[in-house]
Design a protein that fits this description.
alpha+beta; six-stranded antiparallel beta sheet; 23% helix; 145 residues; homotetramer; globular
């Protein structure tokens, strides 16, 4: 476990997550926050599915993106914000139930951080794996400017 | 413009899109379907945003994923379905309004198709670019089995 | 450790690696082969560098591509071959010395396998991380046809 | 065609390419440099191949990486350097002869630039497509420090 630059990282991330209206829209919940790792749960709902009845790949991407991003954010100092530069996700199995996305930091750099997220079903099926790059915006607040 | 393997590709895609409940959830609309290209529009809504008030990167990924996927699907024969193997997206600019995602086929193979999607704002700002791999499932229907 | 489909996977991979003339060109060596993991070493040479004197990112990609690909190949049956569908690599640190790439399988599917590779310097600096998709070609030999 | 920040971008790139010893190792040649686009040619050689006799995917990645990177570099001011943050490449066809990689800028940002490269065979077969992120290092020279 890495030492966070901001001892109040947990509260900072929970408040930020609360402002992500898109997470509320899909019913995602922030369940675990430690320095360098974040878990987000997504209960299954019919309105999250694609044409074959599986959870939409983009929805899987949403929780993976947020989990990896907040894992990166947990190690950053207070008073900054971060943006997703890019991510790449492989879908490994069709998602037919509740999911959990676990994000973790691979390399925390001064400007760029590389993070990963693994998405699992409740039976531990490995549903998706994501590799992501984020950029810290120093001195730019994590809320609407 | 490539020749579609199924002359009824347009109807097939529109019906498939209608079954994507996740697209209805976010308010996305299928606007253009030609052989090898598909456009999806997304009006802006507050409940699609992340913590800074921009459209969530995962939401951008959703419309790009579907646009590129249906572009691939437009060239496939009737009676098959396809799955997203993986995608990689760069976010180029913060999205603060309505978006359009334009998907197009890069290479249509027998099993795998590579497609791209470009996402633009209404003022033509280039918001995101995605590269995607899809796999055709021959003889597997494009609806819940 | 997963059970290999071919008990002679080790010999099969070593012989395949020997046919990779590009690995000889850059001086890469196959050092470890187990079911689902493969390690490749690359001693430093001036003629592997880019304009700033670091090992070229594409050279790092070469050993990561081969390590992850052979990790996938180690779990496949005899008599098949495989092709790299795509890979995505983040470069985490400048490489100024010898490297080792460790490939491992994330998900071995019937047609597609997802693998990863981590590249490290001798001082354990994490130099690069790669996520890769491979496709098995059943009944197609792993040598020039 | 975009306006270059440095009118001497062409000479700057040619000199930088000359310092890429890895390009000399594989026999790659810089053939075209304009603001925002760069082309690199690679004659076929047996020692560039993988186990089936095709050009190694990592070698294809090398010329795509350099072509897209120098396309980005062509728009940057004098006196800076740049590093590859990450790239993602789909291999679309087996490469059995000479190749040309064409890099172009998708979005030139202040810190990060997104570029693409397309790799073609001499018969115009589309061999690979790459999406890449680069970071400018202001005030850091483009040679060994």
């Amino acid at each position: 476990m890495e030492a966070p630059a901001d001892p109040h990282f947990g509260r900072r991330i929970r408040e930020s997550f609360e402002r992500q209206q898109a997470m509320a829209l899909i019913g995602a919940r922030l369940v675990t926050v430690t320095p360098g790792t974040v878990e987000i749960e997504l209960p299954f709902r019919d309105d999250l599915t694609q044409q074959k009845g599986f959870v939409h790949g983009g929805i899987i991407g949403m929780i993976a993106d947020s989990a990896a991003g907040y894992a990166a954010f947990s190690l950053m100092p207070a008073g900054c914000s971060l943006v997703t530069v890019e991510y790449k996700m492989n879908i490994l199995a069709a998602a037919t139930g509740a999911l959990v996305a676990r994000g973790e930091v691979v390399k925390a750099g001064r400007t760029l951080t590389v993070a990963r997220a693994e998405v699992y079903a409740q039976d531990r099926t490995h549903v998706a794996t994501m590799q992501q790059t984020l950029m810290m915006l120093a001195g730019r607040p994590d809320h609407p400017e």
